[in-house]
Design a protein that fits this description.
- Helices cover 42% and strands 14% of the residues.
- By secondary structure, it is α/β, with parallel strands linked by helices.
- A hairpin with a 4-residue loop joins strand 14 and strand 15.
Amino acid sequence: MSFSSVDLSVLNLLKIVGLGFIFDLGTSIFFVLFYALYLLFFPKRFIGSFIDKAFTYFILFFVFLITIFSFLAEFPFWDEFSTRFNFIAVDYLIYTFEVIENINQSYPLPLLIITILALTALFFFYFFKTKKFNDVFNSKISFKNRLMYVLPLLIISFIYIQFVTNKQAETSKNLYVNELSKNGVYSFFAAYRSNELDFMTFYQTLPDQEAFAITKKEILQANQKFTNSDLESLERTVSSDSTENQPNVILICIESFSAEFMSSFGNKENLTPFLDGISKESVFFTNMYATGTRTIRGMEALTLSVPPTPGNSIVRRPNNHNLYSIASVFRQKKYDMNFIYGGDGYFDNMNTFFGGQGFTIVDRNRGNPLSEEIKTTRINIEDKEVTFENAWGICDEDLYKKAIKIADENHKNKKPFFDFIMTTSNHKPYSFPEKTIDMPQGRRESVVKYTDYAIQKFIESAKTKPWFANTVFVIVADHCASSAGKWELNIEKHHIPALIYNLKTKPENINKLVSQIDIMPTLFGYLNWNYTTSLYGKDVRFMQPNDERALIGNYRTLGLLKNDIFTEINDRKQCNQYNWDNETKQMSVDKKDDNPLKKLTISYYQTASERFKNGKMKE
């Protein structure tokens, strides 16, 4: 599956097979350790008894089942993420409804279950045929002799637990070589144990005084002033001499929507005729990059306007309520705020996060209550409002119809409103209502076209409403459709479309290199708002060429693209630099050592991580 992406040198093949054997061996030992301990302590006189046989068969069945399931599951996971099991797989275990429904709708689940059980039965048959069980149930050796077998397993297990880390498989700059060298089950538990990474422990750092000084100098713009001298405070005032506008704001965050899907970026399939059309009537960002590869990273970037901190997104972390965010700015302007999602917002902790920032929750309540710590209103999307639904939620058309109803209600209250709409249709199993578009079910390209179709219907419906003329639409992707590539971070797989539509300003293309965290501060600038901010994002209108940059990360590796140099830091305390060619979309190792860029990269991520950890992001 990775043949075309792996550098198949002799050395790399030896790494893949050699390291792969080491991690496979460790996983195998962990699988048998529990039963080995049972054999060690089980009384000799009961060996071969009914209890012994029942327990042995049960454990063996369980081990076979898990082994076969994990083996088969790695193929679709690799197909989607091009990695062994990682933190995404850990997260999926928590949200069983969405995952099981997605598997059921994407793959022939009954056939998979039959295959797993059949292979398990085949292994049992082999064990019976070769009389392995006869040996097990008739071998009544002493405790001392049993210990001679089990003790080496315990010693080797201890060595693996203490000294063999998943990171040790990462010996190459080619991501595929590193991931192929790992074992899926071993990787899963490694991710489970490191759900949050402390920046100061795992990454290169700077003295706090220096890191915050660099960051403050970097984010301060011409129309801003800091309000205090506190080291860790980024609070500053933003001033405008023009008249403020306070339109309604509807932000549509599109699931898994790469820039390459649009004709505006060279696509030849005409998948997004409506978005391509309104991009010419909008403020259109042609060179924007998502901070991460998951929805919760996109949400984090758009709401908190913060670099992607290592480990899990802040959306998923505890103690993430009352943070300084765009909600803080909208509250300063007396806006009503709604988070509108077509699935159950319990998934990925969305409801807790948005509710904790003061949003009213509008979602498909499947019986998961809001956290008791969050004081907000929850509005359910009723069955009668749904015409089509899959594993992840209702179709985009139904979602937008609900958003129209919420906007109508807010308009009646004569208060400006901000709606954050999170779509779900552009996701596996790639299903959508019949008779909407002229493309087949189950294809990525089809749901991209449906996404465009649903947005068109939404905007057309909104145009019939009295609030439309005074409403601005921000349309942006949460992340790209795929992050796969040979590098740890593949820059071109973070390029997303973004536009601001129905703004009372002349349409323009913004070709500057910008980050996803910049779009909302830029909107506030277009609206001429005077406000207090602690956001990292910038108003791109004030950016000079040397200010342009993009912040890109995944779970463990974090990067800064600036001046065609990509600086990358990781949890092995490494800092690498590459030359980026935007025309060819190629990276090459940078032979020079740009120390200021290294310090700027470290400063961005160190300050963001420390501010959240120390509670300095709180309002």
